[in-house]
């Protein structure tokens, strides 16, 4: 199974992995700011955008599909679900990535008695039921929630409204929710040897900032950059700033401690 990838620019390889229910078009201005400095690989994850679905969809199958198209020693930049795929790939194939950039991501999306930095299981179950009942309304509300309380909310809402509607076949979206609900990568973080840059919005209500703090503390070679006023989309609301962080990370990666 071959993922859909658009390659642009020239320089070190940088692979961009989007979040649940999105596709590679989400990167917008962030990708434009990076293109002069990297060879970008804009990937549609399995069952999203123009990539076919792997059956069954799982964190393993998604990471395997990405590994099959990633040039050796690439930087992986993953947002939300894409960040989870990046972490799992780095844990199971530690020699493959040169480094990771994790934006608005978490080792575990659902909360539990020993993990307060997530979404309650009953809320995720309700979300899945609403996806089946009225996918267009659910996705519109989800996209709006990612923008709320960001200083660039109006701009972000315009960007979200320009994204494609829900597809007719929701199988991959449903299975993607199952991946979010059932994946726990906390043990995987112990096996990540690559340097890691963690970027997170301080006002993120989709993935609480506590998850980013935890990642930065747990992964040996990780640094955290918290953007206090941003929500779940710092790479869009602060595209130039986030791109500058990635460029700096790439330039310092060989001496990254």
TrEMBL record:
Location of the protein in the cell: Cytoplasm
Pathway entry: Cofactor biosynthesis; biotin biosynthesis
GO terms assigned for molecular function: pimelyl-[acyl-carrier protein] methyl ester esterase activity
InterPro entries, sorted: AB_hydrolase_1, AB_hydrolase_fold, AB_hydrolase_sf, BioH
Binding-site list for substrate: 20, 80-81, 232
Family stated for the protein in its record: Belongs to the AB hydrolase superfamily. Carboxylesterase BioH family.
Name of the protein in its database record: Pimeloyl-[acyl-carrier protein] methyl ester esterase
